[in-house]
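Sharing a chain and its predicted structure for anyone who wants a worked example. Both blocks are below, sequence first, tokens second.
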Amino acid sequence: MKTDIEAFRSCGVSQRKAEYIKEFTAKVVSGELDLDAVAQMPDAEVIATLSSLRGIGVWTAEMFLLFTLQRPEVLSYGDLGIHRGMRMVYRHRKITKKLFAKYRRLSPCGSVASLYFWMVAGGAIPGLTDPGGGTQK
């Protein structure tokens, strides 16, 4: 790979993340990771495939599903902004896994719900506060 780690570092990327980016890119270039094939996989398989790579976790794979593949059903339990938005909208102090599962009723529009929760968490509704204090998951 021709891109030097220092080029990434000069953009504010940590050494470790730069290494992950280089490894990921090398797998794509070599054909070991076929992104066209990944795009055809069901959501769970995309998450499993991507999160098996160094430096990519479930949250990153879910964001890939949402923003790159534009999948309609992405509501990430691991996203703090979504938790905050849910706390604000539903007036909970904490979003547990059980509560989160309850809000799966937003299916099949989880991705749209994610965008709205992020907007709410970012202050889109003046005066709406976070009963959890903004720091809990």
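Comments welcome. The mean pLDDT is 93.
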